[in-house]
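S.,

Sequence below, as promised.
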Amino acid sequence: MSVAKINRVKEKVEEQLNKLKLSGEVKSEMRTLMRKAMLHPCYGNPEYNWSLNDFELGARLGRGKFGRVYIAREKYTGYVVALKTLVKRNYTKAQAYLAIIDMVP
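The prediction came back faster than expected:
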């Protein structure tokens, strides 16, 4: 990663933080999170291919007709997310392609 990109990210983060009225401790934590997010390879790259290797899977939160939902932590930034897994056999058997397309933005 280039030094120029890192400096641009730092400038953008500081610009956004200056617009917010945050205390010192909260501002410091926000700065760290924003920098991690903006330096992630997927930032500004809609073609980024996510995989299960990008996440640490936790407990199962629920299940549905087509798959399961897990709590997960993104490895690079540490963000906690809900991760839905789909079992292809289940939705192809039900011919539910439109329901799957509606789930994915």
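Strands lie at 55-63, 67-74, 80-86.

Coffee later?
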